[in-house]
């Protein structure tokens, strides 16, 4: 998705241009006509409803909500990666849906600031839902002016999955916990014809893994500064880039990762063509049972001198939230009914037990039918945690960072060129 600066003027300019040129071609642009003025119709815009993890559970929840609220109709609009652009276009026409279910990333970072969505803090408190939300999630969804951008809902753990059977076959007795051990394991795996670490070096999965490895030598504050400003010149950042280049040029990653995507990564791991992947919980839920039963989850191996004590994972509480639009405030009673229902213990537990989703909402339910998701939930203090940079990267830098990631995963590109590519993404 191409990004543009989301000032109020930038939003208007981008949306007007899109409406004038490509609007008829957008499959989701029925959103423009779908935000009905009928006070008895709640319009919800979501990425759930097709093949996205949790879609079946969500659609069943909508059916139950309709049954419990027979006088209230719910219209469900579905988009994929273009949801943010479609919503912005609808907002320009004042035809936006009432509730939007999307993550905090890229374009959406500026929505509350430019009035595309509203601060929901008072609603959260008035409806008595604050105690249902994990404190970390509330902190992540709150902007620098104290506004709560959306009601937190989906979260994710992002550990590293290790296929023990492939490691055993290659003579790797223990899960690697250091860079040297990972390099030795990669050589043994390659000798057996198995790719070591698979990664989508040409999309967001590679971007996240690169960020994770760079943070080997960065504190959280230092990482926040680097990804907010594009300044990768600090000693720790340079050490992290050096560590990444060492791993890459030692053959740790699958062949030509710079051309692979998240789908390629999942296919390689799930078909046992590769032994290791860094995977968020929704991807772990998709690992076939025959592979999952001999897979362990852990952290990314550390280098000497790392600022962390244990191999690291990523965690995020900003995967999906419920945003309220200006139109939604006109139907706030209907919105309240919907959000109270979605926050209900039985609704939340269904996403955990049926879909293997991690939640930013408190629940005693466990993902028992998704063993790798459940194992990731139990990691706790066995691993360290690094910063997921999504909420700090300026929207204009997101797509260029993907390009810089592909450059970085290209074997032979020097550490200096990797740093230059990362910093250029911010310009």
From TrEMBL:
PANTHER family: ABC TRANSPORTER SUBSTRATE-BINDING PROTEIN, ARABINOSE-BINDING PROTEIN-RELATED. Keywords: Signal. This is Carbohydrate ABC transporter substrate-binding protein. Residues 1-33 form the signal peptide.
């Amino acid at each position: 998705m191409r990004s543009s600066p989301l000032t109020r003027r930038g939003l208007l300019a981008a949306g007007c241009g899109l409406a004038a040129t490509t609007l008829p071609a957008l499959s989701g642009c029925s959103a423009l006509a779908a935000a009905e003025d009928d006070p008895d119709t709640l319009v919800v815009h979501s990425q759930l409803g097709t093949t996205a993890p949790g879609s079946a559970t969500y659609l069943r929840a909508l059916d139950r909500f309709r049954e419990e609220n027979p006088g209230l109709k719910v219209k469900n609009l579905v988009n994929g990666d273009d949801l943010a652009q479609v919503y912005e276009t609808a907002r320009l026409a004042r035809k936006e849906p009432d509730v939007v279910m999307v993550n905090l990333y890229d374009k959406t970072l500026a929505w509350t600031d430019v009035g595309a969505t509203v601060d929901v803090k008072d609603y959260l408190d008035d409806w008595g839902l604050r105690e249902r939300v994990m404190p970390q999630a509330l902190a992540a969804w709150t902007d620098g002016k104290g506004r709560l951008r959306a009601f937190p809902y989906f979260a994710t753990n992002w550990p590293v999955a290790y296929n023990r059977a492939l490691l055993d076959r290659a003579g790797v007795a223990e899960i690697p916990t250091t860079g040297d051990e990972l390099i030795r394991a990669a050589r043994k795996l390659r000798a057996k014809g198995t790719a070591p670490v698979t990664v989508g070096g040409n999309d967001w999965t590679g971007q996240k893994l690169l960020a994770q490895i760079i943070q080997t030598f960065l504190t959280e504050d230092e990482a926040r500064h680097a990804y907010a400003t594009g300044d990768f010149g600090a000693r720790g950042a340079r050490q992290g880039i050096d560590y990444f280049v060492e791993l890459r040029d030692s053959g740790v990653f699958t062949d030509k990762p710079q051309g692979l995507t998240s789908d390629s990564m999942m296919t390689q791991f799930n078909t046992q063509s590769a032994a290791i992947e860094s995977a968020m919980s929704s991807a772990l839920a998709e690992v076939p049972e025959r592979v999952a039963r001999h897979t362990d989850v852990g952290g990314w191996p550390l280098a000497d001198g790392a600022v962390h004590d244990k191999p690291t994972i990523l965690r995020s509480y900003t995967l999906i939230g419920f945003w309220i639009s200006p139109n939604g405030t006109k139907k706030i009673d209907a919105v309240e009914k919907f959000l109270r229902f979605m926050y209900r213990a039985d609704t939340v537990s269904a996403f955990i037990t049926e879909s293997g989703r991690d939640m930013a909402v408190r629940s005693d339910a466990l993902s028992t039918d998704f063993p790798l998701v459940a194992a990731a939930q139990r990691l706790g203090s066995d691993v360290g945690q690094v910063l997921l940079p999504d909420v700090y990267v300026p929207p204009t830098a997101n797509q260029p960072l993907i390009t810089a990631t592909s450059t970085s995963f290209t074997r032979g590109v020097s550490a200096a060129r990797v740093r230059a590519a990362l910093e250029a993404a911010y310009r």
